[in-house]
Amino acid sequence: MPAKYSHVKKRPSPKKQTKRDPHAPHAHQHEHQHHNHEHTHAHGSPHTDRCISQTAAAMAKLERTISRILLIRFEQDIVRLFSTHLYYVALQHLPTFVVRCITVGGPSWVAANTECDEIKDFLRGALAMDMRQAGDRVATKSVLWTYTALRHFAKSQGISICERGGLHSVQLLPHHDALQAHLSSLEAHHPPPFSKPPHLGPMTEGIREIIQACKTKYGKGTDWQQKVREGYDRLCELLYRVAGEFDVRGYGLLLREKLTSKWCECGCSTDHLSEVCERTVRLEEEESGVRSGKEREWDGRGSGVSGWGTEDEEDLWHVDFEVPGETKADLDDEMSVGELMELRYMQAEREKEQGNAAFKKGDYIAAIERYKAAYHIEPELPHYQLNLAAAYLKLNNFIEAEKACDLALGQHRSVKGYWRRAQARKGQGRIDDAVGDLHGVLCLQHTNKEAFDEMCALAPNPLLKATASSSSSSSSAAAASSSSSSTQPSASASASSKPWHEHLAPRVKPLPFARSPTDDRKLKISSIPVTVEIPVEFLAVPTTGPDKGKGAPGAGEASGRMISQTFSYPCWERYMVQRVSEQ
Asked: For residue 339, what pLDDT is reported?
């Protein structure tokens, strides 16, 4: 349910120094002031200057290696923990989705229509909202885990760890080759795919819940149970496949910036990280003891996709966000992170709607400004960049349109992203690149007639053009029926477009039972709009930057004026399933 914001009080100015966040953008500022890269040296011998230069160069390479290790392991931690999150989505939310679909479409509808665009788009919307949280949920833990791994490596090499300052990067200089080897091993299999964690059991609880919910309607027979089970199994497989459209390298932007453009190569960034993390590591060892087998080289949580392989350490999605340096008492008068993210989304959608209104009026410059504002608020939701691309295309600004599509596709490989980038590249005369993007559209939606026709018009291959002319009508028919059934395309579509559609269509195993007439029903899955009443002052609450969530009006400071905000929030709970004819 929507968060209620009336309880939030204005937080007084902090009176005590809080602990520093290891990946906060300003945590490094104080230390970096002492390393402003204006190192001056007395007039020494050329040999001394050369040694200093060589040491500085070696330190720079070492720091780049360490920051890269932190970044890659962060991305792998996102994959590992999000894969676990998907497992719980399959157990907790997909059973309800299956029940709602078969209530309208019959027991075999899900199995027969798993590949339809309607189901895929529903999954994409909910997963996009989950992925925008991934960086915030994983970043702090991942940095701590990778530091633990670096610490274990250092101890295995006989390096002493300072009790207060932790591991100093200069101590790792003699072992840079080993660090580089570890980095190479990480990069060799990166990024890993989303997949069901091997240590987690089968989805029996999910199918049990579905059968229990449907027994009243369908009785105790086994025929419908087989159809329902087949649909649920296919839907679980599709969940991980659709998640594979998202690229973890486009998320976690705050920590990513810290580890790339803001990482200091003189060594102070690693030293600061060590100082912050060492206290936590030692505290955990005091409370839980050093676990057996955890002192091996490169051991520790966050060790790639396999991790520790235990359920309680991998399921971080259902625990509260950790805000480093703040206690629960500190947060009582502030917005919770869940409320903050919901408010942030509302603010971004408000900007987007203003941009849409300007777009419809033909004021594309104003629309661009509003879309940019929305993206600034929510930089990990790719559709704002797609809106930007559409506005730039209207202005024939093909270069900026391509850049916007690049950012969006860097997070999620979508039909709109590939299509609009194809138009931008075609406008620049880069026909081969445009054809490649159109191929990307067809890989995601092989019945997209518009992309198929455009590709045939641009491609110089005469055989392709001949195929297009013979399959135009059948492609249109296939596109019209794709949302109701794509597991068994029509015979005419298969025959006429066989050279293209056969290798672009997803490989789906045939149904183990005969199709039912109800399987041809076209269903619509829609998010349920939510209307909330919030104080007008909350529209000015910062949702990004160091002051995010602060400045909410207190009980005596609010004007009392409320404003209604209605928005659709794609999620696993608020949606409806209807037959198209019922709308």
From this structure: 66
